[in-house]
Design a protein that fits this description.
By secondary structure, this protein is an alpha/beta fold. Helices cover 42% and strands 13% of the residues. Strands 6-5-7-10-11 form a five-stranded parallel beta sheet, with helices on both faces. Strands 1-2 form a two-stranded antiparallel ribbon. The longest helix has 32 residues, at 2-33.
Amino acid sequence: MLPRFLQHLRYLLTALGLLTTVVIAAELFLRSSRQVPPAAVAPDCDDFDQSQLLPSATLHHQMRPLAQVAGPDGRIRFRTNSLGLRGPEPDIPPPEDTLRILLLGDETVLGPWLPDPYTLPARLERDLKDRLDVPVEVVNGGVPGAAPVLSSLMWDHVLQKLEPDIVILHVDMSDVADETFLRRFLRQDGSRRVCIHPCLAAGPPSDSVLALLRRSALFRTVGCRLLTPDTPTRAGDRFQWTRSAGRSVSGQVRHMMESVRVLHESLRAEDRILVLGTSPVPWQVLSMRECGDLMKRFGITDAAPVTDDVPFKTLTAWGQQNDVPVCSSITEFRRFSSPDKLFRREIPRLSKYGTALYARLLARTVLQIRTMTARRSGRSL
């Protein structure tokens, strides 16, 4: 009886040993082959954007500080400073007589696919320098997967020290969906608001077996394959605000505009200026022939172009009610001589030409602000 038991035990241990060997080999292969998708830190961001992010106990997620961000070819695309912002380290306080603008938003602002000179903040800075007789600095506050609630928290917790004269908030066509997701984690911590990333909430200690398993390449690969829904469903929901049925998300829009209001009040309390900006997605400008394949890939079933313009009307009306300048770019995008050049072909994002046009329109809005006062020492620009 005992020998038979020992024989079965030997078989069991052999099987466990083989299984362990296979798991270790798979883990080592995935790590060495660089086929592992980054851990999902923010919703609806691609693997490249995810790799730039860290979970946060106050901001939900943030850019990695002091990082060198490399593209698939291994070349450095850009660097971040100690604040986790793309670009060089900003002077604190700002240099005397310099007009400092902080540009907040998501990937449209960050421009991870663009070289440094062609990002939206860099283009805006050049356009303003060409038209103003004072030094101009535009700080890139873009974070993948951001929404107004995250931008407002960034201002409260991190960016006030920059002391900008003007804060431009880019409101993206995907921000309603991103805002709805992020607000699930919004909490009041004493006198301040925080947005706690779920992986930093109560959970296993960082050195526990479960935590180590979650960080493994094998777990992340299998998890991505089994748990990530199809892109068209996710994207179709993410861009619901841009569709003819966009009015069905009016409740979520109100929540998003509440975050804009909170940011506006914070800035007004410090006597700073808020400007809202927004840019369209391809199916708000192009025809079905020009963007039908992209719409199908992202689950958009409306006929293009979608021209009811609910997002632009909503932001313009809010700006008029609250005395906030708004750069609504839809008319100029539709009037552009070659509108198909304004967008990337594979994703609903601006191309370098669309970014340049949007920067010119933002510069025009800034120049239309009658008095640009730095509010720090009573100087006027």
